[in-house]
Amino acid sequence: MNNSDIQAARKIVLSGVVQGVGFRPYIYRHALQHKLQGWVRNASGRVEIHVQGEVKNLDDFINTLIDKAPPLSRPVLESASNIASVDSLEFLIIPSLADTDADIHLPADLFTCDDCLHELNDPGNRRYRYPFINCTQCGPRYTLINSLPYDRPNTSMSGFPLCEACLAEYTNPLDRRYHAEPVACAQCGPVLTYSEPGKDLLKGNQIALKAALEALGSGLVLAIKGVGGYHLVCDACNDEAVYQLRRTKPRPHKPLAVMFPSRPDNRLAILRDYLLADEIESMLLESTARPIVLVRKKTGNRLSEAIAPGLNEVGAMLPYSPLHHILLNDFGAPLVASSANISGEPVLTENSDIEQRLAHVANAFLHHDRAIVRPADDPVVRVINGLPAPIRQGRGLAPVELELPFKLEEPVLAVGSHMKNTIALAWDKRVVVSPHIGEMDSPRSLQTFEQCIDDLEALYQVKAEQIVCDAHPRYTPTRWAQQRGLPVFEVYHHHAHASAVYAEALLNNRDLQDMLVFTWDGVGLGPDGTLWGGEALAGRPGNWQRVASFRAFKLPGGERAGREPWRSAAAVCWESGKDCRLEEASDPLLFSFWRQGKNSPQTSAAGRLFDAAAALCGVRTRASFEGQGPMQLEALAALCAEIDGNRSIPLELSKADDGYSVDWAPLIPMLMNETIPQTERAAIFHLSMADSLLRQAIKLREDINVNQVGFAGGVFQNRVLTERCITLLNRNSFEVTWPLMVPVNDAGISFGQIVENAMRSR
Q1: What is the DSSP letter of 346?
Q2: What is the tens place of the pLDDT at every residue in 616-629?
């Protein structure tokens, strides 16, 4: 084409997730389709395009650029400006422009695309049944990157030289595997190994798969290496296998995730034989992240009752890696797919670690030789009021990148809470929240926590110059922060909760003023030295005021109450002048200590009220995992969801030194009344708590003229409660918001710490 024929030229700059996701070859193909010339390159975390040709073709190119982008990408059109044309006869992918000040966005690990699935199941394709098939549209990313730029030598694929056929695909811009860094095949890529005590090691993809399937069919528990870590896998319909997994892990009651086979023509066909997925849940199950989605059980389903005892939902997911697809399709039935870890620790990733640390749990092991650079647990999502609310951010959805409503003067690291820990790294107007790390009670959790910090700083090329932590002096992240030699700023737990929901709301409403945030969770240290957890905070980040709170009560045993709901039940009974009939509370010495306040700190925690309700209703007096009692209480309430709202019990509001005090005592006689069916007591309790929230909101609107209401804290993972609260507030013309980008639980604390600390100085 002669220069005289060229009618226009444009320079286009795109930011967002545009590197490591097949964006440049997409631009190359897109340009050729529109008969354009020029070039494309990576530059400073962005993609730059010089494109020229007929004006109509240029306009069509730009107008369809975003809509047709690769599924892993999240491009943002920064600019499209007119420039002078140059002599050019073709369109090229030119070398990247290096820059130390890069606008980096890490690509997440995502599902196996339909094109690769077709090849995986095609006997005539050279990658037929290859467990590590991928292309630029799909496959692992975040968990295999050692360093940036995202090139094969900087990933855990560096030790797998490409064969001639794969190299040809990798270097062809028209091929969908052009610079797909994990690309491989059976001739040059990772290989499966099957290990079972007392038997010979089996190396080779098909022989290892055959052995694994035979083991699953025999009712054994397998540890299977996936994308971000190992799963403990067994037949989800085999009671004996599931009970064995629970006994040996040990995990007596905590729900187990289930992975369902996915048919190419109808991905959810098999899942629908077992579960009642609605439209939004179905969409989430089939989304590119392939998260675990909480879905209601179908009556008479064949899943083992031991999967989710006492609950009416199952954590369900579809296969997301080719290895999972092969196993599930060959097995033909759902499999338990629980994270392979010691309880509370991060998921295990190393072949040797899994065989050493979980030898008592798994009967056999399916390994592969592609290293997992960093762990990433499966994400968990629950639909609340028709919207997907994250419970845990992980593989496919994390790191979570958010915009800050202000600009930071220097980079900041927030180290989160002790439970459900995440960390957040922030600089300029950006914040990155890590995947789920977990409870900070073990050396391995601390090791993963430190690795996560090092990784994010290295990958994003940002070094924190100050640290923000929780004000609780005994939290592991707080103690760690105090030893780093950097300036440390403390943020109270519930101020961080409130600031997280406020900042997220601000992204959608730039005119947002003061907000009323209900921070309901377990316990967190408050500014007055007591354990908060049932507060209403008014204001905005950096200026929160407690304006209402549940009546405080002394909690016998303090932190032990989280796993022993009977302690909360005893406390509310004694506090309201009633005897506690629970056997565990019969020790007179315990009552004496409680009365004297020995090892019985004051708390206003709504989470402990839910614990008390569960114990008094006879649901759960001792818990094998955090939140077990409230979760089972919610399941009972859901069975009675249509109960008349008039049966809610009013909770009196009275003036207190710092706002209003909400008296929960009227609930206690109802909860103890065994003539009322368990389901009804559970439902009345939920209705009453929601009604109390509304009463607080109405009163506080009258007092301080705040109409925007936010929810923060783990209690609002409860769908029955949260949906009832939203309904009541909407009927009374409140504007309601709750987190949808970071979890409402303590996993959102690190983000809130960043926001709260920054706004205090403004």
Answers
A1: P
A2: 999 999 999 999 99
- Is residue 581 in some structural domain? yes
Q: Which residues lie across from 532 on neighbouring strands?
A: 524
The HSE-up count of residue 127 (CA atoms within 13 Å, CB side) is 23
Q: What is the CATH number of the domain that holds 77?
A: 3.30.70.100
Please check whether residues 516 and 643 belong to one and the same domain: yes
Q: Quick check: pTM over 0.90?
A: yes
Distance between CA 324 and CA 267 in Å, rounded?
Answer: 14
Domain-embedded: residue 460: yes
What number of other Cβ atoms are within 10 A of residue 76's Cβ?
A: 13
Distances (CA, A) of 190 to 42, 183, 348, 502, 616: 29, 10, 19, 45, 54
Given 434, 462, 491, the domain boundary residue is 491
Distance CA 212, CA 202 (A): 10
The CATH number linked to 332 is 3.90.870.30
Kindly give the pairing relationship between strand 387-392 and strand 222-225: unpaired
Number of domains in the chain: 4
Both 601 and 478 in one domain: the answer is: no
Nearest to 608 by CA among 689, 695, 534: 534
The reply to whether 129 falls in a domain is: no
What pLDDT is recorded for position 259?
98
Are residues 443 and 578 located together in one domain of the fold?
Answer: no
User: Do 421 and 538 have their domain in common?
Assistant: no
How remote is the C-alpha of 191 from its chain's centroid?
30
User: Which domain range does residue 215 map to?
Assistant: 192-368
Q: pLDDT of 412-465, one tens digit each?
A: 999 999 999 999 999 999 999 999 999 998 898 999 999 999 999 999 999 999
HSE-CB of 531 using CA atoms within 13 angstroms: 21
125, with CB counted inside 10 A (0-12, 13-18, 19+), is middle
Q: Give the pLDDT confidence score for residue 6 in this predicted structure.
A: 60
Task: Return d(Cα 177, Cα 189) in angstroms, integer.
Answer: 14
